[in-house]
Structures are given as structure tokens and as C-alpha cells.
Amino acid sequence: MNWKRGRHRRSSSADNVWYVAGSCIVFFLLGNLLMFQTYHGFVENRGERSMHGDSLQDHPISIKDLTGKLLGRPLMIKYQLDQYSVFESRLRKLMENTQDSGRGDIFTHHLSTTETKFDKNGNRLLNCGDIDNITDKEYIASGWTKAVYKGIYKGSPVAVKTVDIRGQDVGSCVEQGRTVEDCYWKAAQKIINEIVILQGIPHDNIIKVIGFCVPKKDADKDGRTVVMVTELGETIDLIKLLQMSWEDRLRISHDVTNLMEFLANTPYGSVSMNDYRRQQFVLVNGQLKLSDVDDVGFDEPSCINDNECTVVFSSSNFTKHLSCIGGYCLGYNEHRNLFNTGRHFTTFLLPHGAPLLLKPHIEQVVNAYSNLTLNSGLLVDKMNTIVNLYKSGNYLNRTAPEQHKTEFLKHTRSDLPGQHDYRCRFSMSGVGCTVSVFDQREAEDICKIDPECKGFVITDQTTWAGRKIVHLKNGIGKISTNENTDLLIKPS
To answer: d(Cα 5, Cα 15) in Å, to the nearest integer?
Structure first.
């Protein structure tokens, strides 16, 4: 009997434990579900969303503290005041109504969602209300922290970036025992960080912020999430790069070199791309742009002597020794960025398919990237030389400006649309043999040495380098009228 009573007590205790445990699990799942619905409110656009949220807190953010958090210690002591004052001014414009959210972390301070903001060119930035009106939202991709969608705003495509609730960042945080809401805000801090940095270092080869929504405290109860809207870019990978025409690969190499020179000399010091990958870049209308600044740094390593200023690239078995000046390894970030740029872009993009007379110039650039023999400013000069030679046609080695006499039969205002197209190496098109030329004479030379070419259509369209676009044809069919093209037939 005593045994039975003891067993009954133990059974009751066990039931209580299971009851409590079950209740905790139910509450946890409900909490996760609520957070999940809040996050996906943007994607699913469920119902009306309030623009305002709760009132602001009483304690304003310290701009100096935020600047220190985002950019860390300035590169050179003598520039501290200038760098701080410039960036403080920009932060004030970006975060005029930012207040202390009370969440305990500087990055969770909330930006005003209702006040009109403008970028450096005076263009109005989208706010939360505008972002609610983005239509045709479609998932593109996700990374460690962010999910990226494409959408349409007033007829123009845009990229919308928000926290990926299923991403590694949130997932690993939840596994450590923290709530989904805490982990969401921890990941959202990185997006807020990106908003501020992208606004602080605008450049032609850095993705442009079109707008953002960072709700005030507890505004997530109304369904708001942290969102950044940027230009929509096309992702790149190695295969896509290698399939490009040499002219497009030249443009990418030129763009990335200009970007490296800018990052080495921003108003806030030299910027380091700590996690350099091709996936951090996109193409916007053919122009290369850095789109992910999650892992950039604004600090050069501190040092006591030159022995502490060695840049090591273990995967490439390469080492570069730098000087310790003023307590910092000057040029450390720049050299790291340049070496990685060579590995991921210029070393394999430039040489393949380059015009013969440009190859000596290209070899100098490739060597400088591989061995770090030139700084970014000198590399920009070298790349400008290559681009100018290509644009001017000087690479064609024409010894005298002689009058060109064509042997091709010319049909003005004529075309062969959709007829006799064929594939060729280095074509700019996936459906035919489309190339760019400096002039008609170069197009004729290309057709002459191609046994499959029987003629070509020269258009009035030009590339980024100002070169004419030409469609080579492997036969001649019914000729159509086209005011914008000329047809030239190869002599038999």
C-alpha cells in the first residue's frame, strides 16, 4: 500500500512536470508563430499597416556613440575631428528623429518612419508608407542574415532586403536559447548598420539606397519589420563572368578598380572588405556595384613596429610586408582588398580574349594585382589607359589614317532580322554572333577572317565604350528595310 501511494505521488509529480513542460512548449511555439507572422507581413501584405507605431522614448540617441559603434576608431589621429564631423552631419540627416529604444543595443535605435528624408543628390528616400506600396514582390535569394526580394515601385524594379527569419543568423541565435524576437532584432541590427554605412559612403560602384523602414519601439505589433530598399541588381558568378564579351569584362575590371581606390580613400579612412566574395557584388545595367557591406571594417590594424604589419594570404602562399606608421599598418586594408580583387576578378577577366596590342598593358595590371606592386591610385591610371586605348581604336595598329575602300556590298537602311544568325566566340548575345566594333572597317576585318561570316548588319546602337554593335550573319536572305541599320555583304 505504501508502495502504491509512493508510486501515485511519483506519478502525480511526473504528470505535473509534463504539464508544465507542455505549457512552456505551447507558449514558445505561439511566440515563434507570432514573430513569424510579423516577419512575413511584408511578403504577404496582410491587411492594412499602421505608419506610426508607439510614441518615441524620452532619451535621444548619442550620435557620437553610434558613429563609434559603426565606424570604430578613425584611421589617422589628425583626421579624427574632420572625419567625425562629416559623418556626424550625415548621420544626423539620416537619423534625425532616432531615439533610444531601451533594447540595450545601439543598433536597435529606431529611425523615424514618417519624416521625409533625402539622399546626397536631393532624391527623396522611400519611407515605410512607400514601401507598403511596393508590388509584385518575388523572392530572389537569402544569405546568412537577409532575405532579398524584388518588387516594383511606380513602374521601376527595386530590391527589398529584410531579416531572413529562417536564416543561419536567427537560427543559430535561437539554438543558444534566446527568443525568436530577440534574435530577429539582433539580425535586424546588421541591416540598420548597412543602411547607415551605404548612406555614408555613396559611390557609383556601391549599391544605392532608395529607402528604408526602421519602425519605432513596439511598432512591430502593427506588422512592421526592418526593411531596406535598394537598386535591383543582377547576381554574378564565375560562369556568367567568363561567358561575357571581353568588353563587358573590361568594364567590370575598370569598375572594381575604381571601387578599390575609393574604399582606400573614403572620408572615414580605409575600408576593409573582411569577407571578400563575388556574391557581394551585383550588376546594375551592366555596371558593377558592391551590394553587401555586412562585414566591412574601417580600422587599419594597430601596431608597434613593422614586424606586426605583414599581410598574409595563406591560400595563395603570398606575403606582403608593410610599414607601421603612427601606430597603424598603413595600407593594410588597401592591399588586402587589391589582392582579393585580383583573385576574384581582374586576373582571369582581363587577359582572356583581349586585343593583341592591349595585352602588354593588361599584363602590367594583372601583375600589379597579383604581386601588389602598385597602389589603387596607380592601378586606376593603368586601367584608364587601357579603356581609353580601347575606346579610341588605337589598339587596331593602323599606321596611317588612310582612306578605307570597302570590298563589301553595302545596302543602306537594310536588315536581316531573325535570319542567318549563328553562335560565335565572345558574342555579346546568346542567340547570335553579336560583337562591338570601333568602326565599319573593324567589322569587315572580323567578317573576313571568319569563314562562316557572309555579311553583317551594323546598327546605330553603341556600348558603354561608345562602340558600334554589329550582328554577323552566315547567309543572306530576304532583306528588310530598317532606318537604323546598314547591311554589308561579304564579297564571294
So the answer is: 15
Cell of 140: 530572389
Q: Average pLDDT in the 187-214 region? A: 90
Entry pTM: 0.75
Spell out a b/e string for 298-332, using b for 16 or more CB atoms within 10 Å of the CB, else e.
Answer: bbbbebeeeeebebeeeeeeeebebebeeebbbbb
8-232 shares its CATH topology with 237-396: no
Of 412, 398, 471, 411, residue with least CA distance to 441: 398
pLDDT tens across 240-253, in order? 898 888 999 999 99
Query: Domain 237-396, what fold?
Result: Transferase(Phosphotransferase); domain 1 (1.10.510)
Pick the CATH number of 409-489 from 2.160.20, 3.50.4, 3.40.50, 1.10.3210: 3.50.4
Q: Which residues are catalytic?
A: 275
Q: What are the residue boundaries of the structural domains of the chain, listed by start?
A: 8-232, 237-396, 409-489
Task: Give the architecture-level CATH label for domain 8-232.
Answer: 2-Layer Sandwich (3.30)
Closest CA to 132 of 274, 204, 227: 227
pLDDT confidence band for 175 (50 / 70 / 90): confident
pLDDT in tens, 40-94: 444 444 333 232 333 223 223 333 343 444 444 333 333 333 443 444 444 444 4
